[in-house]
């Protein structure tokens, strides 16, 4: 097959430098003149074209020397012309080993002007024999590796074609493919592409392995456009690809984020009958997972295993991880079973992914079962496996199990990470297990793995509870250990001082924070604003808010809610409502809790019309009221004696399907008890229990007070006994209510039994309890017992009030003991108590009978 020379006259005399030394290859065709090679003693079998010896692996052929008795051995200079060298090489056309030896000899003499024609002739000779194919490739590699400037590959291609025609060589595509492969092997990718294109222009088909090598280099260098162009040219000439070609192009599409192109290419290769290997399947599976088309991924995986191809650990991990992200644990379990049935063992990576999946679903039992199984199968859990399980156990408040895993991890020689320790410390602190958390913290500090995050976990625990002393001690320990505080650390200290109302120290920490180069954030300012509101200093809180806005820190929704809630709590609810409107204009989206704060503020101020107006505004804005909203309104309507509206809110809450809690019932029960409607109160009390809720101490207290007010002490006492049977503690208020009720019914024995029961439980009477007792005893003429109670008050350091003295004075007045009544009046004055109208009515006007001497007593 003849190929025309591509414009030989345009080739420069020489511009291709690719041999060692500052020599030139003459690119002009030379007429062969017979000459003999130089003596063989100057040519050794260790000579190499690049001046470097062949290794044994490079040169497996034993090269025979050229005959030293050649007639021309005496004319050295004449024999080194390109024409003579070509002529001599052609003499050894059928002996490529001798030709190569001769070339090495003349190339090393220093007087030979090298030319492309000489090299092309030698290359034709070497590729013509299977014995010297490797030498041809090594020769090319050595030349191109030595000089990266060189001339265009088209020069070599044209000279290869030209020399084959002029010197009668059969055109062998091996020479061209070796040339292409050498460019690739020495990373001259642009030259390789030019060579590839030049071969196609000359009708020479690149060999698939060399083409694949070039394609792979393009992909590795991220030259995706050139890779696609090369592949398109291969397809256009009808060249047959193999599995490696498909693999490289699939990588191109996958890197470009075109998983659908990967699938298309895979199916086309299958249709062409290309024998696809495991790596091609792996790329196709990755693409299916990225689409995501997990059904396709599963089918490809099964198809792959059905062909006897073994999926890699990475492939299995990708598929299983994708199903886990989709939450399809059924498919994950099926794939796992297929793996095991096909003889593919469950590895730690896949097992960890499965454990993580169970953890994300909160299925701690299955996660721990799988963990035990992999250990039984001889697999060693890794650090990730333990981390996932420890985090799961802490999240499920299984802190004992989490700590067991932590200890097991250390036993296996796996160094716990600070993340493991932090999870456990956080968990134990949430469970109020301070000793365990402290022990872990001390270990972390001792082992040197405690970071500022570790300290911040503990610091926040102290700060949120206002434990300033402990927080300061921890701060000092952190600094002493060389751990630099972060902005979170400073925020925690500010929080601690805000919790105890020490706003001066909170601002001192703030100032230090700024001096140390930390920029306060929205959390910093929000805590300070909340701290001032909690102290009732709304003006200072608003100043800090303005300061935050002034330094261009945008308030968060949390900040807006703090301001609205704070203003509502300090009785400036109208202002809070106006603020809400202003914040909404700035992009704030109020939540249910925002409106609840304003509604609660108006309820506390007794402005029920305003509270109900905010409720309507809330509904109109599309925000659904929650149980707290309705409970607040019910409570407000009850306090304003508007039981009809309170009941209406209760029914509306139920009609909306809201799950009522105990406080929701308590507000309405308390309202009916205070109005004396015990029938409805009892109905709600029963309903509360029917929906599965348990009455608490507050509910019982309301019911007992209600029955006392309607003089039904039997029902009140029954509720008291029920409380005791159910283990619900009775507080001082309940005992005082019961004692007052029984004293009203002249049941002194029952009243004092309850008083004794209360004292036995360690409940200390207050002034209200003593007032109830003394008033009841005095009305019944039990003045001696009343004075005993008075002495008991003195022992407890409780000063009697005017109501108590009025009861005692009235009691003695009834008995006709005016002297004692007068003495008590003087004693009252000596104690600094100011007599009221009731006192003078008794002493001056003698009004005792029919007087409500205990009218000021309130224990409800």
TrEMBL record:
The keyword Repeat applies. It comes from the Eukaryota. The keyword Metal-binding does not apply. Keywords: Repeat. Pfam families: PPR (PF01535), PPR_2 (PF13041). Residues 28-51, 60-79 are annotated as: Disordered. PPR repeats lie at residues 172-206, 277-311, 347-381, 382-416, 451-485, 486-520, 521-555, 556-590, 591-625, 626-660, 661-695, 696-730, 731-765, 766-800, 801-835. PANTHER family: PENTATRICOPEPTIDE REPEAT DOMAIN CONTAINING PROTEIN-RELATED, TETRATRICOPEPTIDE REPEAT (TPR)-LIKE SUPERFAMILY PROTEIN-RELATED. This is Pentatricopeptide repeat-containing protein. The lineage of its organism: Eukaryota, Viridiplantae, Streptophyta, Embryophyta, Tracheophyta.
């Amino acid at each position: 097959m003849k190929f025309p020379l591509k414009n030989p006259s345009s080739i420069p005399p020489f511009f291709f430098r690719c041999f060692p030394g500052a020599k030139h290859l003459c690119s002009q065709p030379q007429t062969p003149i017979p000459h003999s090679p130089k003596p063989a003693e100057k040519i050794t079998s260790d000579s190499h074209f690049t001046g470097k010896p062949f290794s044994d692996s490079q040169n497996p052929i034993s090269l025979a020397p050229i005959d030293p008795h050649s007639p021309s051995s005496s004319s050295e200079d004449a024999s080194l012309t390109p024409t003579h060298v070509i002529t001599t090489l052609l003499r050894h056309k059928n002996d490529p080993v001798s030709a190569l030896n001769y070339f090495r000899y003349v190339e090393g003499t220093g007087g030979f002007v090298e030319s492309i024609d000489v090299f092309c002739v030698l290359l034709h000779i070497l590729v013509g024999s299977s014995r010297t194919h490797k030498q041809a490739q090594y020769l090319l590699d050595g030349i191109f590796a030595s000089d990266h400037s060189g001339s265009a590959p088209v020069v070599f291609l044209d000279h290869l074609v030209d020399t084959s025609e002029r010197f009668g060589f059969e055109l062998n595509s091996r020479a061209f493919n070796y040339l292409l492969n050498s460019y690739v092997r020495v990373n001259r990718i642009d030259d390789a592409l030019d060579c590839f294109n030049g071969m196609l222009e000359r009708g020479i088909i690149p060999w698939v392995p060399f083409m694949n090598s070039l394609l792979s280099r393009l992909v590795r260098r991220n030259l995706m456009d050139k890779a696609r162009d090369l592949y398109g040219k291969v397809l256009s000439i009808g060249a047959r690809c193999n599995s490696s070609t498909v693999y490289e192009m699939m990588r191109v599409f996958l890197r470009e984020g075109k998983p659908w192109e990967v699938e298309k290419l895979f199916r086309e290769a299958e249709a062409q009958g290309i024998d696809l290997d495991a790596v091609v399947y792996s790329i196709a599976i990755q693409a299916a997972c990225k689409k995501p088309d997990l059904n396709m991924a599963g089918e490809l995986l099964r198809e792959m295993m059905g062909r006897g191809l073994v999926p890699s650990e990475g492939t299995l991990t990708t598929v299983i991880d994708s199903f886990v992200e989709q939450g399809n644990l059924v498919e994950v379990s099926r794939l796992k079973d297929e793996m095991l049935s096909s003889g593919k063992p469950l590895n730690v990576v896949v097992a960890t992914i499965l454990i993580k999946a169970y953890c994300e679903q909160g299925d701690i039992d299955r996660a721990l079962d799988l963990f035990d199984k992999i250990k039984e199968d001889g697999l060693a859990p890794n650090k990730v496996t333990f981390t996932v399980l420890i985090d799961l156990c802490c999240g499920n408040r299984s802190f004992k199990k989490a700590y067991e895993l932590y200890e097991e991890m250390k036993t296996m020689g796996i160094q716990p990470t600070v993340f493991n320790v932090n999870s456990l410390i956080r968990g134990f602190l949430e469970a109020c297990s301070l000793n365990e958390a402290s022990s872990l913290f001390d270990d972390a500090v001792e082992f040197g793995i405690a970071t500022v995050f570790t300290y911040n976990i503990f610091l926040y625990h102290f700060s949120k509870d206002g434990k300033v002393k402990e927080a300061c001690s921890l701060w000092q320990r952190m600094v002493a250990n060389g751990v630099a505080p972060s902005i979170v650390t400073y925020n925690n200290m500010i929080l601690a001082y805000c919790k105890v109302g020490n706003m001066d120290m909170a601002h001192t920490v703030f100032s230090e924070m700024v001096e140390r180069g930390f920029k306060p954030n929205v959390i910093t300012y929000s805590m300070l604003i909340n701290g001032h509101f909690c102290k009732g200093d709304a003006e200072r809180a608003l100043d800090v808010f303005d300061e935050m806005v002034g330094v261009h820190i945008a308030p968060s929704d949390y900040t807006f809610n703090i301001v609205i809630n704070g203003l509502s709590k300090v009785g400036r609810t109208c202002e809070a409502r106006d603020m809400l409107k202003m914040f909404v204009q700035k992009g704030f989206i109020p939540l249910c809790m925002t409106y609840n704060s304003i509604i609660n503020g108006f309820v506390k101020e007794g402005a029920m019309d305003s509270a109900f107006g905010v409720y309507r505004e809330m509904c109109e804005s599309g925000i659904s009221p929650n149980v707290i909203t309705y409970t607040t309104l019910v409570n407000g309507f009850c306090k304003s004696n508007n039981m009809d509206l309170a009941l209406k809110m209760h029914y509306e809450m139920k009609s909306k399907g809201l799950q009522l809690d105990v406080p929701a019932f308590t507000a309405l029960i308390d309202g009916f008890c205070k109005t004396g409607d015990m029938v409805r109160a009892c109905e709600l009390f029963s309903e509360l229990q029917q929906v599965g809720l348990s009455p608490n101490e507050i509910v019982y207290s309301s019911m007992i007070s209600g029955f006392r007010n309607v003089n039904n002490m039997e029902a009140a006492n029954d509720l008291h006994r029920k409380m005791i049977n159910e283990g619900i503690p009775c507080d001082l208020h309940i005992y005082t209510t019961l004692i007052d009720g029984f004293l009203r019914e002249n049941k002194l024995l029952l009243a004092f039994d309850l008083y004794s029961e209360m004292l036995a439980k360690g409940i200390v009477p207050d002034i209200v309890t003593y007032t109830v007792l003394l008033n009841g005893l005095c009305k019944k003429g039990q003045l001696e017992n009343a004075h005993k109670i008075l002495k008991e008050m003195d022992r407890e350091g409780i000063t009697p009030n005017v109501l108590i003295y009025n009861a005692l004075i009235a009691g003695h007045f009834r008995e006709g003991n005016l002297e004692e009544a007068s003495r008590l009046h003087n004693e009252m004055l000596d104690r600094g108590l100011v007599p009221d109208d009731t006192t003078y009515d008794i002493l001056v006007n003698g009004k005792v009978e029919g007087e409500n001497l205990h009218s000021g007593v309130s224990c409800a």
